[in-house]
Amino acid sequence: MYDFRKSVVYQCYFKSFFDSNGDGVGDLGGVTAKLDYLKTLGVDYIWLNPFFPSPQRDNGYDVADYCAVDPRFGTMADFETLSQEAAKRGIRLMLDMVFNHTSTEHEWFQKALAGDKEYEDFYIWREGGADGTPPNNWESKFGGNAWQYVPEKGKWYLHLFDPTQADLNWENPRVRQELQKVIRFWMDKGVKGFRFDVVNLISKGSYKSDDQGDGRRFYTDGPRIHEFLHELSAATFGTDAEIITVGEMSSTSMENCYRYAGADTGELSMVFSFHHLKVDFVGNEKWVLVPFDFLKLKNILFSWQTGMSDHNAWNAVFWCNHDQPRVVSRFGDEGEYWAPSAKMLGTVVHCLRGTPYVYQGEEIGMTNAGFTSLDQYRDVESINHYHILRARGLHEDSVYDILRVHSRDNARTPMQWDASAHGGFTTAEPWISVNPNHTRINAAAQVGDPDSVFTHYQKLIALRKQYDVIAYGDFAPLDQQHPSVLAYTRRLNGEQLVVVNNFYRTETDWTCPVDLDGFTCLLSNYPDSTVQTKLHLRPYESLVLHRAAK
Ligand code: GLC
Q1: I want to staple 18 with a disulfide (CB 3.0 to 4.6 A). Which of 30, 98, 155, 442 is the partner?
Q2: pLDDT for the residue numbered 2
Q3: CA of 238 to the centre of ligand 1 (A)
């Protein structure tokens, strides 16, 4: 089944998935070893985070060679074995292309540093102020100024992320050709899926200082972005109708996404957007503690559903990835209602119009890491922000409270396979600590248990394949302003789905605006849910109601 609208993608942050060689770090062999688990879950694609040679300053998003495998994670033969074994199970691979920047250890950057003018033009260099100030005031996403000075050159290079992640100069046609070769290299190996990292940042536009902000308005969805994506598609993946692509769109606008992911615009198959996950931020500032804004969450999710649909464009739908905290900790309940809330959140996403992404461990309801000291953190962004927040005068305890909620390491603790030491992830000391709750929350306890979170996800994935209305139906919100219920309907040629979710632990009465005559309950997170127009919803209760075409 390779229609991406009927498919579900599983994100494998393999470094924390399964360690097959006992060195404490997950690897490609570990993914191969667990393919039967993924087949049991029912997913169609595995998105692999970057496994290319890298100094691992940003866990592989600092690529030093796009066409090889980092020896820490295996060999090219291991990649080929994984690809073949996955194919035998009907699963395809999606690779992560980090094309906004390379590691400063990449050969291109090293040549640039050594004075090779051709390679110097692969990156973005500017002169700074006479007083030693950087070329402009743009900020790095990981904190601090976005420019790094190189004394031998007397110039600064741009890095929107870590100083070891130098931004590529997409204005240079040679850069674009080299990146096309990378895609063709992996296409020749049979790869049928690509994810493009922060790809809407590649066209930089102007380099003016930004008196209103951190510079993002100059380079986000920049002036040549559609041209660049169009060209990349036409020269590579666009020639193979079986390939699916997804772009990670940072701080994007919906209007741009109509084009990035339009059915006939010749750019990408779908997009990740993040506005619905900024509902526990203050503006763009994530290093704060505020309760999430439920109405805002609904309004954003629903407006992207209808907007993208009206423009024949396609969303990737998701709560979790390796950059986001765990959703059950964020919008659900880690305590008494852990299982019902984890199931409810899964239902919300999987019945939407779009391709659902499951992030490893989400399908068993894994929670945030709960780290209590800085030496447990591994993520460069978290460690930088620990120091930034301390320097702003925040008390250490408050900083830890913020990291425990927002750190990317919340998602990066090892997959909890069973109740044994290190959660069955490794026989060695893991590169990042395992959550102690692995004794309670683990895959072994859930696979085959009819009431588990895992089984609920398994059913959700199967429903999308079985019911065309889930894959192809139109979307419409229900009772959008309700303060605690998230409900919507999907319709396709007389077939109809009604999805009702109590987003909170308090019980609530809700009257369905749709006539439910002839509906049956396809799925619920309570054993005895019934189809009624006047519903009394229990904590986190979630129902998927369906009526076939008459
Ligand atoms: C994306 C990745 C993230 C990485 C950043 C820079 O947002 O998902 O993990 O740090 O790009 O490559």
Answers
A1: 30
A2: 73
A3: 24
